[in-house]
Structures are given as structure tokens and as C-alpha cells.
Specification:
This protein has helices spanning 19-36, 49-58, 64-77, 81-85, 89-96, 102-120, 128-131, 139-149, 159-167, 176-184, 192-205, 233-237, 249-256, 261-266. It is mostly helical and 273 residues long. Helix 2 packs antiparallel against helix 8 and helix 5 crosses helix 6. Bound molecules: iron/sulfur cluster (SF4). Iron/sulfur cluster is lined by residues 167, 206-207, 212-214, 217, 219-220, 223, 225-226, 228-229.
Length: 273
């Protein structure tokens, strides 16, 4: 993968840029990220909307890796909303304990499952307005489920997406809903779900909150925040995480070749940080 070795020629401030220019730059960034992360997918393991909904609720304040270690047993025990709605709360808490905040999460899960049984005949609804009425479900979770389990475009504004959208100059806001609308204006709806994955992948691997690896960043030349982090290429490369981290070249090669996360885990590769 090529990484530009020069600083961006100009620093662009949002105020100096027309909407059309910002759209073009935003789409160029997304195109580059798509080439850099062709394997970007939802990092939570799921096989149906119910599982993704549960996994996303559990992912609050913890890592996707930890959720993925917890859900196989959970889904085997409670395979659908009806089973979960009838769960014993203490048993449920034990199963989800590793994800943290297990009392609050178990209450949300029980209430959410009960609502799905009572109001939606046991099936996870496929509409934003219905999803956000469920316990423990905000716009972020609803958009994750719509985009990844129902194929309905959605922008998922988590902490990474919000930080990078601001660094890219796509928004000035810190309000997740406003950020969602500002960014939605720059892209075609068909691109929203994958855009969310690309940006979150980049935030987790390269453009970290405290030490962005600007010197090893594939979109540096279109980023007005270049220089906020380490610009020395060698030092920046050491800041990269997951499959981009130094020493994980084989993992990266296999991901680029299309091996699934399940296959890679089975082969013993570490998919965590
Ligand atoms: S790592 Fe640096 S150059 Fe890359 S997106 Fe983040 S702030 Fe911009």
C-alpha cells in the first residue's frame, strides 16, 4: 500500500472551501481509504439482525474483540428475541459480564427483547424510527443494524467517526446527529455504510485520538489536519495498530487476499490491538 511521503501542499480550512470542493475531497479520501482497507467490515460477529443488535448494545464502552469473545455462548443460549426476553437476569448478567456495565446492559437487553416480542412479533424492525424506540438503542446502534444487517444505508457516528470527520474538515460540530447530517451531505447514500467502516477502520489503526500517525497516513495529502500527529514516516509506522502494525505483514497480506475474520482467527492470527 502506498503512503504519500509529502505533506499536503496546502492546509484547507472548511471556511475556505466550497461545498463542491469539500465533496470532491471527501470522496477522494473515501476512495483512498476503500483501497487501503478493502477488507473493512463490521467488526462485530453476527449472522442475523438480532445478533447484530445485541452485539452492538454490548459494544458500548468496550472493544469489539471482547464482545466477539462473549457472544458465541450468549447466542447459543438465547438465539432470538423470544428466548432473550425470557432469560433469567442473573444468568444473563454472568454471560455478558466480560463486556462491562453488565447490570445496565442486561436490563437494556431484556427490555429490548420484550419490546421486539410484544411490538414486532419477535422480529427486529428494519426502520430507524422503530429501532430507536427500543431500549439501549440510539441512532448509532440503529444505523449499524440498518446498514449491516438490512442493507439500508446509514452513517454510524461513533467516537472514531466523529473525531476523523472533524479532522478531515467535513464538519465543525461535536454533536453526533449534526455530524451525521453534515457528512451525509458529502456522499451518495449508497456509500454511507461502507464509508462508516472505512473511517472507523482508519481511526482505529492510523488516525488515533492522541497520536495520529500522519507520516504513515494514506490520505495525508487531502487532510487539513496533517501534522497533528507524528509526521516522521519511521516513527509514524510504529504507531500503526492491528494488521498494519509492524510485524503483522502476513496477517495484512491474508486480509488483503480476502480471508475472513473467522478463518484468520481459526488460523491463530491476533485480530485485536
Ligand atoms: S493521521 Fe494525520 S493526516 Fe491522517 S487523517 Fe489523521 S490527522 Fe489527517
Amino acid at each position: 500500500m502506498s503512503v504519500p511521503d509529502k505533506a499536503p501542499a496546502t492546509r484547507r480550512r472548511k471556511t475556505e472551501e466550497s461545498l463542491l470542493a469539500r465533496k470532491r475531497r471527501a470522496r477522494r479520501i473515501n476512495k483512498e481509504l476503500a483501497e487501503h482497507y478493502p477488507y473493512a467490515v463490521a467488526e462485530l460477529d453476527f449472522s442475523n439482525p438480532f445478533e447484530l443488535l445485541v452485539a452492538t448494545i454490548l459494544s458500548a464502552q468496550t472493544t469489539d474483540v471482547r464482545v466477539n469473545m462473549t457472544t458465541p455462548v450468549l447466542f447459543a443460549r438465547y438465539p432470538d428475541a423470544r428466548a432473550l426476553a425470557e432469560a433469567d437476569e442473573t444468568e444473563l448478567q454472568e454471560l455478558i459480564k466480560p463486556t462491562g456495565f453488565f447490570r445496565a446492559k442486561s436490563q437494556s437487553l431484556l427490555k429490548m427483547a420484550g419490546q421486539i416480542v410484544d411490538e414486532f412479533d419477535g422480529e427486529v424492525p428494519g426502520k430507524l424510527d422503530d429501532l430507536v424506540k427500543l431500549a439501549g438503542v440510539g441512532r448509532k446502534t440503529a444505523n449499524v443494524v440498518l446498514g449491516n444487517a438490512f442493507g439500508i444505508p446509514g452513517i454510524t457516528v461513533d467516537t472514531h467517526f466523529l473525531r476523523l470527520s472533524r479532522r478531515f474538515g467535513w464538519t465543525d460540530s461535536t454533536d453526533a446527529v449534526k455530524v451525521e447530517f453534515d457528512v451525509a451531505e458529502l456522499f451518495e447514500p449508497k456509500d454511507w455504510t461502507m464509508l462508516s467502516h472505512h473511517v472507523v477502520f482508519h481511526g482505529r489503526r492510523v488516525c488515533h485520538a492522541r497520536k495520529p500517525a500522519c507520516g504513515a497516513c494514506p490520505v495525508a495529502q487531502w487532510c487539513p489536519s496533517y501534522g497533528e500527529g507524528e509526521v516522521d514516516p519511521e516513527k509514524a509506522r510504529k504507531l500503526l495498530k492491528y494488521e498494519l502494525a509492524p510485524g503483522r505483514e502476513e496477517l495484512l497480506a491474508r486480509m488483503m487476499a480476502g480471508e475472513t475474520r473467522r478463518e484468520l482467527r481459526a488460523a491463530g492470527f491476533p485480530l485485536g490491538a
